[in-house]
Every structure is written in C-alpha cells, then in structure tokens.
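Lab meeting notes turned into a lecture example. A postdoc, R.K., suggested we walk through two folding results consecutively so the class can see how the record format repeats. The first protein's sequence and structure tokens come next.
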Amino acid sequence: MNAVYINSASCISVQDTLNENFFQHLQPENSTQIIKAIEPNYKEFIPPAMIRRMSKTVKMSSVASHNALQEAGIKQPDAIIVGTGMGCSQDSEKFLKNVIDNHEEFLTPTFFIQSTHNTVAGQIALGLQCHAYNFTYVNTSSSLEFSLLDAQLQITDGEAENILVGSTDEQTDRTMELYCLNNTIKKEADLPADHLHSPTNGVIWGEGASFFVVGKDKTKSTYARLKDIQVINKLELNETQDFITAFLTKNKLSTHNIDAVILGFSGEAASDVYYTNVMNLFPDSSLLYYKHLSGEFNTASGFSIFMACHILKSQQVPEVMMINRTEKKEIKNILLYNHLSGSDHSLVLLERA
C-alpha cells in the first residue's frame, strides 16, 4: 500500500503540548491517580455562547482540529474521521443523572443528543460547514489506528487528498470513581508509579485530544510518512514477537532498520509484560515510552503519534522518554506499539519524510 503523509499534528494533553517549546518542558506525572489535560483559553478559538454548550472533549477537539488544519494550510478537508473510546461521556453522565433524578419523566433531550460518540466529528464539520465524509470509530484503544487506516485507504484509492483525522477522550467524575473501585486506576498506596518496573496493577488515568491532517502529497509542513498500520484484538504473550516481525517483514524491514520504538508502558504489571517481551527484539534501537507523560486512556496512542511526528521532524528524542541510552545519528523509521490492558494491540510504522 502506498504511504500517505502526516502534514500537521496538534495535541491537547496533560503536557503543555500547544506550546511550541513543549519538548523542553515535558514533566512525568506519576504521583496522582488521575491527571487532567492542560486546556487552552477556549475564548480565543470558540465563541463564548457556544463554549457553554460544549463538553470538554468537544472543546479540546475543536481547538486541536483548528490548529491541525491551520498548520497544514487546509480550509476544507475531504473527510473528517475521529476515533474515541468513551465519546462524550460527560454529557452521557448528565443524561443518566437526569433520568434517575426525574424518575424517567420530563427529560430534556439535549444531553442525550450531545452524548453520542459522533458529536465531536459532527461539531467540527458544523464549524467548518464541511459536508464531506464524516465518520467516528469507537474501537477502545485502537480507535485512532482504525481512523488512520480509513484515511490511508481513501487517499491511496484516490477518493480524497487531505483528511482530518483525530482522537479524543475526556474524564468524568463518576466513571473515574468506578475505575478506582474496580482497580483500573492505581490505588493511592501504590503511588508514585514506576511505569517501567511496576509490581502493581492499575494505571494512572489521563485524557486528551490529538488531531492530524494526512494527505497524498508532501508539503512544507510534513512531519512523517504513514507507512503501515496493523491491529489485532487478542494476542498471546508468546505470539507478540512474531506479530511484530511479520509486520516489519511485510514492509520489507527488519528489526535492525527500526531506529526508535515507542512502547506504551502504563505501569500495569499484568499487561506491561507484552512490552517487556519485545524489547530484546530491538538491540540496536532507541527504546522509548510515553504514558508517564500522558497518562493511560483509550486514545493515548494519539499522544505517542504526535510525539513520534515531532521526533522525526526535529531529529531529537526527549531524554524523559528514553528507556535505554541508544542514540541514533539519524531517525528514519519509528515503530509504535500500544495496547490497553492486554487487548487491542496496534502497530504503527512512521518514516521520516
């Protein structure tokens, strides 16, 4: 399959990633159970009357998508594709609370209408007056990967030239309470977390929105070539290395051709073994991790792709991401491997443009 280009990248995360110099100010977040995104002043981007009606995920996505389109110099994308694991969960909770509080009577439909997962893609299209293909993928931790795969197929088939692709997930109070109760989130006693050598289960939960413009042509703003994506729902631990080597072989590469590998270590002992298992496949590569910077959430891979784009463009690796001390004179190929609690394993291969 022909590669497509990532021509812009914008991210709102628990780091100050809207700042041009964010590379120098990355701070690990390992002492709090739940970490919130650093939000911009929305009044600079969205009319105040609209802000009141928007949930956090819609606001974050509106700003990130606006920045991505502006950086790529695109006013009207040929398609808008968004991946999300939880959707507009704030409005979902508000609607369910209304159902309970009002005994299922006299309900206003507003929160229900705004709670659907495709609200984000719809709101972006409304703001742009874009009547093109508009789609939302809800595939837990591989939602962004399926969105990028859809965009790649459309571009290589000649159906589109420039596509806005994004991912977004927000936190909600009740859901975070439930995640703490079922031990999805680490207990306070297990903090601060060691993301690389954690003896305990559970994760530190984050949130964020990442948006990219992918296109058929290389431009002045191009970050990387999107070479290939592969997703598998279930994978046995002893199958992990074969999964990766087969993916690289399909792309006419070996493990020695990979300059950097970005792994999704989350601090969960039970599922991080997948990442530990593949590290010895790459003795000559820079091994990197990122969830100590972003937190874990359904579309945390958006943060890793955003970071990979900047690494390829700047040819610099932030020291705070390094697992080993292998440094390359040139970073040409980056492999990203992610999963969520041992399910939905994804591989993304990016190449320097």
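The second example is placed directly after the first for contrast:
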Amino acid sequence: MPTPLTRTLNLNKASRTVQVADDGEQLLYVLRNQLGQHGPRFGCGVSQCGACTVLVDGQIRRSCVAPLRTIPEGANVETLDGLGTPEDPHPLQKAFTDEQAGQCAYCINGIIMGALGWLRQRQAAGTTTAPTEEEIAAFLSGEAPGSTLNYLCRCGAQ
C-alpha cells in the first residue's frame, strides 16, 4: 500500500502544502494538478526532452522523473508561471519573445527554466559574460561542461 506524503514547498516564493496518496507521485503532476502550474509540461516522461524542467533549490530538475518524496521539505521550487507576467516579463522571457525563439511554445518552458538555472550557475561560478552561440548550443544539446541534460524541440523552431 503506498504511503501518503505531505510536503510544504516554497513555490515561486509562496508557501504551499500538498498531499499525495502515493509518495512516488512525480513532482510534475503535483505542480500541474494540485498547484495549478501550467508551465511545466509532460513531454517524454523519461527526462529526455526537458519540457517539464523546473528549478528546485536553484538546481535544474526534470519534474517528470522527480518523485515528490525526493523534494526536500521547504524546498524552493521555481516554475515558468512565477517568472514574470505578460506586462512585466522576466528578462529571459523577453529575450525569447524578442528573438521569436519559439513556434508552438510547448518546449519553451523547459528551455527557459533550464537556461535560467544554467545562467545562474555560470554567474555563481564567476562567469558574467554572455554565453556564445556555441556555448548555448552545447547547453541545449547536453554537451556543456557539467551537464548531461538536453532539450528537444519537436516542432523544429530552434
């Protein structure tokens, strides 16, 4: 019999408590079904496409393969829903819009959240220059130093 689990998360800077009947329930479904987050999306379900990417305590996480039980009590969880608004977008959202970086927009959530985590990690490591096109391509393909996560766009807009 699955074990029920209650967890409090700091979702986009707001404390939210969730309860699941099965402690193996993936973070993606908790975010979408209980917390009304529409940014993270189900793509592949096996951590290969990135559509479900969120930041957990600043780290890039694939929410489709992250059981809620693996998310620490009180963890800071960031989703695209909490970054900005149409009237006041986050600079990364604005850059993607200005450059017309998406077509169908299904994968863009994951790419933006992954890019945000990656850029923050670069900054924390002391790299303050803008990444080159080659570095961005390496990040998206999972070939960047220290990264094994890739991002897939099925509609071909990239």
